[in-house]
Amino acid sequence: MSGTRALPVPDGLAGERVDAALARLLGLSRTRAAELAADGAVRVDGRPVGKSDRLVAGAYLEVDLTPSAPQAPPVVAEPVPGMRIVHDDDDLVVVDKPVGVAAHPSPGWTGPTVVGALAAAGYRISTSGAAERQGIVHRLDAGTSGLMVVAKSEHAYTELKRAFKERTVEKVYHALVQGHPSPTTGTIDAPIGRHPSSDWKFAVVAGGKPSVTHYEVLEMLPGASLVEVHLETGRTHQIRVHFAALKHSLVGDLTYGADPSLAARVGVTRQWLHAMRLGFEHPGTGQWFEASSEYPDDLAAGLETLRGAYS
Fold first, then answer.
1. What tens digit of pLDDT does each residue of 205-225 get?
2. In 10 A of CB 44, how many CB atoms?
3. CA angle 147-153-158, nearest 5°?
4. Is there a catalytic annotation at residue 199?
5. What span, in angstroms and rounded, lies between the C-alpha atoms of 145 and 98?
6. Share of the chain above pLDDT 90, in %
């Protein structure tokens, strides 16, 4: 049930409490009705009322049933051990994000964030965008490590947002996937949208957003392959979803069908995925800018474990 309901208070509900009356009129629970009143979503003759206010026959009752979006928590300035500053100038800062760090605060996330770490380090970033994600022009999953660029100037924010939208940014990842993809070089062009039965996951679905992933197998290993991935688009979980659709889930990515026994053998507790290179036209100089990153220790160790299986 959503939208706004408006109706005169019937004689039979005269004198009733607002929460009790809404429960009877609209089939809501008393708790839900009380929440609506507390949120200012219930009005009588244009005036907000509380849950315990009494109704008057013939008054005009309005109830806004539109679900309210959860509010993102505020930015908390908190240092993040292991987050390396790769580049810093007047327009932007490039960070090498560790695993377990989100790009910005969001409902349900209580861990560290890139914007919080930058705030703790005294960085002033662009004021464009919502308060909790100012300066953020793209994101990495909390479970993915690697390079992120954050805008410091308003000009950089505008230009970088445009560059990501127009797909002129070079985004290169390395991933360890289960099995041996065939062909060893290819393009996955498949639309991505919300998973039909799990709204916290994504999937290849008809009517999803256009999503294009280019890949090349760099190394074949026992039960897995190291692949280089170039993203043409940047959908949420794109690499993870596309390789899962090919039946080559990322090693350690249990959310998208990875084999737990292989993850245990490799010794990783998250998806083996790292943002290796990031390139774009610098918004200040107009010159091509590129940054690169090495594998973090857990991914490097897992890769060497598989390589050692050959010896």
1. 998 999 999 999 999 999 999
2. 17
3. 80
4. no
5. 5
6. 63
